């Protein structure tokens, strides 16, 4: 046995000294502990590893902060610098739930978009969206739209589509008007207003607004209001029935279903006898 130091032997063989160390073996409960750690980090997004370690110990795990910190860093977990706000609904019994669409006519959202005709005059668009199906239910275009116009659009949609459970909107004066609130409540729906200055809480309709501005408004010149109404309604139909939607697996929100008529194939026409051309002898 040569009396050579480990450092000199590794240098001679071109190996790193860490190759001569014993590889650490994880404990048998490592996988279960990591799964519990990730679940707690997902549930309590603002907790650091120290609070999560306390929760683990309260749940019966025999762990210290150092081990939790090691696993925390190993999984790439960290507390986000800024937590996004989420709209919530409080039930009568005190329980809290997030307002997320679960089926058609569960949550509708609406918002205003402004544009101009060629002469510089402003017109407004009231976009109404079904958050579950992503279908654009209506776009009302006019020079001015007030609370009475909001009620007219919703009343037409309620007759055609039924009454949704919730209607989400920002805190614009047309939406928070007492006439709109009382009318929506009287027909059996509930208003869901986002936090002031937080448009991301109304993300479905805000995304739709960005799409219609990017695909239509920024590339068209409207000379009259009537032209704008016709073209915007045509785009809405295209959006619902043809345009692929990324969140729906690149399918349109409301594709048109039709069954082509199956008719018997017409019989081939009878072949006419070919008359031979006369020949001269």
Structure write-up:
The chain is of the alpha/beta class and 281 residues long. 34% of the residues lie in helices and 14% in strands. It is built from eight helices and seven strands. The longest helix has 17 residues. The C terminus is likely disordered.
Question: What structural category characterises the helix and strand content?
Answer: alpha/beta
Strands, count? 7
- State the CATH topology of one domain: Nucleotidyltransferase, domain 5
Q: What ranges have pLDDT less than 50 throughout 5 or more consecutive residues?
A: 90-97, 258-281
Nearest-angstrom radius of gyration?
33 Å
Class of one domain in CATH?
Alpha Beta
N-to-C SSE string, H for helix and E for strand: HHHHEEEEEHEHEHH
**Mass-distribution shape:** elongated
**Average residue pLDDT:** 81
- By CATH's scheme, which homologous superfamily of one domain applies? Ribonuclease H-like superfamily/Ribonuclease H
Instruction: Kindly report the spatial arrangement of strands forming the biggest sheet.
Output: 5-4-3-6-7
What proportion strand?
5-15%
The span between the termini is: 119 Å
Q: What is the number of helical segments per DSSP (H or I, 4+ residues)? A: 8
Helix content: 25-40%
**Based on the structure given, which CATH architecture of one domain is correct?**
2-Layer Sandwich
Please describe the biggest sheet, giving its number of strands, its sense, and whether it closes into a barrel: 5 strands, mixed
């Amino acid at each position: 046995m040569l009396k050579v130091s480990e450092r000199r032997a590794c240098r001679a063989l071109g190996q790193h000294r860490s190759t001569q160390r014993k590889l650490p073996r994880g404990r048998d409960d490592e996988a279960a502990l990591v799964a519990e750690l990730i679940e707690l980090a997902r549930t309590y997004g603002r907790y650091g590893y120290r609070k999560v370690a306390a929760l683990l110990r309260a749940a019966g795990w025999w762990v210290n902060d150092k081990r939790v910190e090691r696993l925390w860093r190993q999984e790439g977990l960290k507390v986000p610098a800024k937590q996004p706000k989420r709209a919530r609904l409080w039930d009568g019994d005190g329980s809290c739930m997030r307002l997320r669409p679960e089926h058609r006519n569960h949550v509708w959202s609406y918002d205003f978009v402004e544009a101009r005709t060629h002469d510089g005059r402003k017109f407004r668009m009231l976009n109404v969206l079904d958050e579950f199906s992503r279908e654009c239910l209506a776009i009302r275009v006019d020079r001015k739209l007030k609370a009475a116009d909001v009620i007219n659009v919703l009343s037409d949609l309620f007759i055609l589509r039924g009454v949704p459970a919730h209607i989400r909107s920002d805190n614009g004066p047309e939406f928070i008007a007492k006439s709109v609130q009382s009318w929506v409540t009287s027909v059996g729906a509930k208003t869901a207003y986002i936090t002031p200055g937080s448009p991301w809480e109304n993300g479905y309709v805000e995304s739709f607004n960005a799409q219609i501005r990017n695909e239509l408004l920024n590339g068209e010149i409207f000379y009259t209001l009537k032209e704008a109404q016709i073209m915007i309604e045509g785009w809405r139909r295209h959006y619902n029935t043809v345009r692929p939607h990324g969140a729906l697996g690149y399918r349109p929100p409301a594709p048109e279903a039709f069954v082509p008529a199956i008719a018997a194939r017409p019989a081939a026409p009878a072949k006419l006898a070919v008359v031979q051309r006369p020949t001269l002898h």
